[in-house]
Fold this sequence. Notes:
Helix content is about 55%, strand content about 15%. The chain is α/β, with parallel strands linked by helices. It has one domain: P-loop containing nucleotide triphosphate hydrolases (Rossmann fold, 3-Layer(aba) Sandwich). It is globular. The site of adenosine-5'-diphosphate has 15 residues, from helix 1 and helix 8. Pfam families: SKI.
Amino acid sequence: MNNIILIGMPGAGKSTVGVVLAKVLGYQFIDSDLLIQEQEQRLLKDIIEEEGIEGFIQIENKVNSKINVSHSIIATGGSVIYGEEAMEHLREIGTVIYIKLSYETLEDRLGNIKQRGVVLKEGQNLLGLYNERCPLYQKYAHVIVDAENMDVENAVEEIVRLINTKQ
Ligand SMILES: Nc1ncnc2c1ncn2[C@@H]1O[C@H](COP(=O)(O)OP(=O)(O)O)[C@@H](O)[C@H]1O
Ligand SMILES: O=C(O)C1=C[C@@H](OP(=O)(O)O)[C@@H](O)[C@H](O)C1
Ligand SMILES: [Mg+2]
């Protein structure tokens, strides 16, 4: 269905890069986080607080599994890769692009992840989360974009270049 799905760690730039990419390609833009909030009529932070991280992951999996669009850029939330059904669906409806950054860059960019409402297990820190998730982002990606040292415009250009190379 010709969609482009962005995955990666929180702070990787999925939402920021995604909206610019949509403009450049003339696609629609969808942010899974906003879809979840709309369908649940609750803020992400309230869902995480009220349902716990397992409950949030289930809701995120359900919402992403039902996305039915075409010619859209879909910026997912960083924890989407815990939902197997969602990832299989997203891989079927488009090209999954992993925006990859080093741990050091993410740490600089993120500040306090606890305030950001990231799905963190008890006692887990950003490095633990990074090491746990990187293999999953890699597993589900059709294309990996190394966005280290790239500003938003450079990242958009690189994604467009990789998509064109792939076709
Ligand atoms: N390529 C980039 N270079 C520097 N900062 C960026 C870049 N992309 C995004 N940012 C900044 O990083 C933060 C997180 O970006 P965001 O798009 O919300 O990431 P995500 O949706 O992947 O969690 C924002 O403050 C954003 O302005
Ligand atoms: O990685 C995570 O655990 C999360 C990332 C958030 O989205 P972004 O990746 O857009 O920040 C959001 O889905 C939720 O707060 C959980
Ligand atoms: Mg986002």
